[in-house]
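#structure-requests
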Amino acid sequence: MTRLIDAYCKALEWLIAAMLAAMVLLVFGNVVLRYVANSGITMSEELSRWLFVWMTFLGAVVALKEHGHLGTDMLVSRLGPLGKRVCLALAQALMLWATWLLFSGSVAQAKINWDVEAPVSGLSVAIFYASGVVFAVSAGVLLLRELWRTLSGQLRDDELVMVQESEDLAQLQARQDDASPSK
C-alpha cells in the first residue's frame, strides 16, 4: 500500500510540475502577445486560474502524505504517548469529517454545473469543481490509512505529532529524511 501511495504522489508531483509549466507558458505568452502583437490568448486567464486551483488541491494531497502541513504542537508535544495518540486520532477524525464535507459539496457543485459552460473556453465548469472531488477522495484514503495506523499502534512515539511548527523546521526535517541511510 505504501508503494502505491508513493507512486501516486510522485505522479501528482509530475502533474503539478506540468500544470505549473503550462501556467507559465500561458501567462508569459499572453503578456508577450499583448505587448508585441497587440493580441492575446483568449483562454489564458481562465485556464491559468483553473490550473492554479487544481495545483493547489493536488499539492495539498502531496503535503498531507508527507506530513508537510504547518500547525502548532505547543500543547500536544507536552502530552504523553497516550495523550498524543488520542489527540492525533481525534484530529484525523475531524480531518476526515472536513474532507467528507468538501467531497459532498464538490460533488454537488459538479452536478449543478455539469451543463454550465465556462465563458471563454466553453468547457464544463464541473471540471473546476472536480478538483475538490479528487482531493477529497485522495485525502480520505490517506487519512483513513493514517487513522488506522494511529489506532492500531503502528506509529512510533516520535510520529504521533504530525505537523510542522514552521516552514524552516519542515525543510530541515525533509533534508534529514533525504540524508538518512534508510532511503
